Amino acid sequence: MALPNNTALGRNSQNVSVNGARVTQNNFQLNGIDANKLETNATAFAAVPAPETIQEFKVQSSLYDATFGRGSGGNVQAVTKSGSNDFHGAVYEYFRNDALNANNPFLKSAGVKRPTLQRNVFGGLLGGPIKTNRSFFFVSYQGTRENNGASPNSLTSSVLVAQGLTDDRSQQTLLATFRPRQSNGLPATLIDPVALALLNAKLP
């Protein structure tokens, strides 16, 4: 969904700036209930509703009345589904797999294969009457199973560093590697054995 004069900040985040206002100047309501943090005016959703449970979603970026005018940014309203006199339900699954993805061009140029990614988002929902025309119920469940892998990059300051970590991993060798001048180094006794083990495991 694209909104005019709106900018998304970061990745995997709901922080949105509307009409140049701060991300804390938006107003969020869920089923008509205030869902904002009083300290920062940011969203306070304890749990984000599953997409399949949303019945109505509305974003106002301007020209809203004083009912929703607590902030100078956007007004976001979400309404979830509810039960009725008839039974209604659904099951769903969103599927992603690295076999269907293209590789990152930088990883490809370096000869690195596609990162692992198997993601399954599944669930179901059901609504209906408890007593006709009087009371109703609506329940939903969503589960997520994900297996992914990252391709981090590590930088070393020189060839000597790599040689020092892959050949002789003694404290003396590491000390000499990271100390180009005698006056700049630390005594070998100040290199913690835990840190030494971590370096050796991190950069084999």
Describe the protein in words.
By secondary structure, the chain is an alpha+beta fold. It has 3 domains: 6-80, no CATH class; 88-148, no CATH class; 159-202, no CATH class. It contains 4 helices and 9 strands. A hairpin with a 2-residue loop joins strand 3 (27-30) and strand 4 (33-34). The chain starts with 5 loop residues before the first strand and ends with a helix.
Write the layout of secondary structure elements.
Elements: E1 6-8, E2 16-18, E3 27-30, E4 33-34, E5 54-60, E6 75-80, E7 88-97, H1 105-109, E8 117-131, E9 135-148, H2 159-166, H3 171-178, H4 193-202
Helix pairs in contact: 2-3
Supply the key terms:
9 strands; single chain; 4-stranded mixed beta sheet; 3 domains; alpha+beta; 3-stranded antiparallel beta sheet; 204 residues; 15% helix
Task: Briefly summarize what is shown.
The protein is of the alpha+beta class and 204 residues long. It is 15% helix and 31% strand.
Percent in helix: 10-25%
Strand content: 25-35%
Q: Could you tell me the number of beta strands? A: 9
SSE arrangement, N to C? EEEEEEEHEEHHH
Class per helix and strand makeup:
alpha+beta
Low-confidence stretches: 5-10
CA radius of gyration:
27 Å
Helical stretch tally: 4
The first-to-last residue Cα distance is 45 Å
Shape: extended
Biggest β-sheet, characterized? 4 strands, mixed
| Arithmetic mean of pLDDT | 76
- Total separate domains: 3
Order the strands across the largest sheet as they lie in space. 4-3-6-5
